[in-house]
Amino acid sequence: MDLQELKQKLEQIKKQGFIKTHRVGDTGIGKTLEDLLQIKENNIPLPDIKGVAELKAYRKDAKSMLTLFTLEPRPKGGDRDRLLLDNFGYSKRNNKRSKELHSTLSCRRYNNQNLRLSVSKDKIKVNGKGKKLNIFWDMASVKRKFEDKLPALVYVLVDRKGAGSEEYFHFNEAYLLKDFSFDLFKKMIKKDQIVVDFRMYYRPNGSVRNHGTGFRVKINKLYKCFKSKIRLI
Q1: Is residue 146 classed as helix, strand or coil in its secondary structure?
Q2: Residue 8: phi, psi to the nearest 5?
Q3: Contact between residue 145 and residue 204 where contact means Cβ atoms under 8 Å apart
Q4: CATH code for position 180
């Protein structure tokens, strides 16, 4: 469909008022909207933007965060993870891991593992209290990863009422978001609207298991990553 057709469909959905969820739970909102738009996948082909727009629907009162993408920092390789685990990891008595690091990093303060983020002109850096680190993400890799994952976004916001199988959604606000901005991305990191999760540990044989380093964003702030914001309804 093109943008005009999408806009017309969203207007029709808006006019229906509150619609009962098609699935119980957090994913019910996306499933319901997909069904109403009659699409089978979580994206919409839009020739207007020369590609595909990811479809995301969110409750306006949502306070949770979602994972934008996973991206490992530089330098590459296990030595980086071993450095983090040896210096900032911790051990628990109830498992066989000598060290693990499940840690959320933000910009404004050091966390319990003495790690935080900082932002420079073209990098996002990992800082360790009392330890000099050279671990970072560069602008090019973040921009490429973001645009691969979310080249454009149809961002739909809803009012809701009820809960569980009796939750109802009113799809009454929607935007087409495009043109990712690294400068806006950095500003969101500085404000702790985007954080980074490390998820790694030592296996019993001494090798490192890394579950992927995730960039996470507050759901109701996701739109701030884009320079272009076109209101659809």
Answers
A1: helix
A2: -65, -40
A3: no
A4: 3.30.70.3570
In this structure, the chain runs to a length of 233
Nearest-angstrom CA–CA distance, 81 and 76: 9
Number of domains in the chain: 1
Residue 3 host element (H or E):
helix 3-15
3-class DSSP assignment, residue 117: strand
Record the pTM: 0.83
CA distance 73 to 201: 16
The residue type of 231 is R
SS3 184: helix
- Candidates 218, 231, 169; CA nearest to 28 is 169
Q: What is the pLDDT of residues 159-198, one digit of tens each?
A: 999 999 999 999 999 999 999 898 999 999 999 999 999 9
pLDDT digits over 81-113, tens only?
A: 999 999 999 987 677 778 999 999 999 999 999
Q: Which domain holds residue 24?
A: 3-231
SS3 annotation, 78-109: HHHHHHHHHHHCECCCCCCCCCEEEEEECCCC
**Helix, strand, coil share (%) of the chain residues, nearest 5:** 30, 40, 30
Please name which of 171, 174, 231, 232 lies closest in space to residue 17, comparing C-alpha atoms.
171
Output phi, psi for 71, to 5 deg: -155, 120
